[in-house]
Amino acid sequence: MAETVRDEQFENLIAFIRDERGFDFSGYKRPSLQRRIAKRMQDIGVEGFGAYEDLLKNDGDEFSQLFNTILINVTSFFRDEVSWDFLGEQIVPTMLETKDPAEPIRVWSTGCASGEEAYTLAIVLSEALGEEAFRARVKIYATDVDEEALTQGRHAAYDAKAVEPVPAALREKYFERINSSFVFRADLRRSVIFGRHDLIHDPPISRVDLLVSRNTLMYFDSNTQEQILRSFHFALRDHGVLFLGKAEAIANRSQLFKPVDLKRRVFRKLPRENGPARVVHVEPEDGHELSRIATETLIKEAGFEAAPTAQLVVDPEGRLSMANLQARMFFSLAPRDIGRPIQDLEVSFRPVELRSRIEQAYNERHAITLRDVEWRVGDDLRFVDVQVVPLIASTGEVVGCGITFTDVTRYQRLQQALTESKREVETAYEELQSTVEELETTNEELQSTNEELETTNEELQSTNEELETMNEELQSTNEELSTINDELQQRTDELNDTNAYLEGILSSLKAAVVVVDREFEIRGWNQGARDLWGLIEDEVYGKHFLNLDIGLPVDQLRPSIRKVLAGEDQQSVTLPAVNRRGRQIECRVTATPLGQQDEIRGVILMMEELEE
Known about the structure:
Elements: H1 8-21, H2 30-44, H3 49-58, H4 62-71, H5 81-97, E1 105-109, H6 116-129, H7 131-137, E2 138-144, H8 147-155, E3 157-158, H9 168-174, E4 175-178, E5 181-184, H10 186-189, E6 192-196, E7 208-213, H11 222-235, E8 236-244, E9 257-261, E10 266-269, H12 287-306, E11 310-314, E12 320-323, H13 325-331, H14 355-364, E13 368-377, E14 380-392, E15 398-407, H15 409-508, E16 512-517, E17 522-525, H16 527-533, H17 537-540, H18 558-565, E18 571-578, E19 584-596, E20 599-609
Parallel strand pairs: 1-2, 1-7, 2-6, 7-8
Antiparallel strand pairs: 3-5, 4-5, 8-10, 9-10, 11-12, 11-15, 13-14, 14-15, 16-17, 16-20, 18-19, 19-20
């Protein structure tokens, strides 16, 4: 299969996001990650990953929008209802049967987004245990890398659409209606603990009975998935249950989990047969002493297993004798690698060549320490301190070699940031000195400007006097305008009286009267016209007279109207018509000019129904 072409600008962008905000997406599937970032760039109209990195440097608010696009906080209550039914009816009762009635129950919901699945777990367990036992025994740890989504989950307030998948009876029992929101009950909400957790870099929550990680693994590449599943295996108690999403499967990790129900993606932890705890053969004086020695051995090896730094133990023959959890996760070591020669393992030469250092530690019989060793894991550059220590028994015999890898990437980056800050401070100091000189120059300019302002002030005083004179003139003009306004108001009243007078004349005429202008648009329509044709004035005013659909064949009046508009005397024509009651009538229409002979403004049409 052809190797994917590496996009340097894209990789630089991922490294910038990691260094700037602490979100390490190096373990995510490259095509999916690149597609989601490109979608955000398209939404805001940015072309090129380099240009988008510049935008992030200048606009810190863009990070939250980008993370929302990448992390896709898509979740809901009882998502894949059949799987939740199986969990509530089969898995939870079986889990409760194996535990003491007073024993705590620990549940971990990873990639919880805004908390819907965490509260779904709370409902399922509360229904199985009863509310009192739930409050006393259950702790649900809900984790995600998105702080904004976690804040929403802590508030536990959802709109009506979000709680639709919750059955009505459970919705009524577990949610309180506050305004337009449904809020999960506060007394039960205290058992759900939200916190930020990075599955790739943060240590897992331990002693978990039920681990829910639904459609979270699908965003990571296969190596990162292996690392996360090893963390899940460590987190779960023996025979603990792992509940995945329907888009995920781990059939090829049979050494860690066995399927309970593949269709519903429910798996059970397989305890390791050759884990860190091993049986120590001793010849004690009595059974109590055997128990004590065995307990001490288990404690020592449990402490070795849980150490926060990666630790390896190599026996004198050069074989890998022990590797704790962090070491197995760091170097992808499998149980079958225990007992293999160290030179056959990649860890013998990466991140640093170990065989010569082990030999040196044996010969000099003291610790060999290497600082700030660069270690490139995929596209991620890490820094580790390596310490190779000979293990010397009380008899003075060298019984092996212990190797410790301490991840100091964070401190190295802090050191780099400190160096950069010092450089920026020096630059800022030089800029400050330059600014002081500029301020002195500016002060002199300000003094000169002050003198100019004093001169300008005198000019403004003179201008103010001129403005006062202009104000007096404007007051006089305003009085004149008030007088004109009064005259206009008087003329308006007279015009209104005239219009009312004309309207009264038109209304008093029994005949139908229609007034049209030179464009044939209707400007008058009296009561007689309303009675004859059944249309009121508001329905016809401003419309073209010849477009009216009434019982009168108006198109036959066009010649008469045009003659009157051309200056001829009144025209009269008798036409068959249908009045508003649907009765056939003979209608005489008389067209008379509106206005003087030299300025005809329109036509007055008088319509009379002829008696039979």
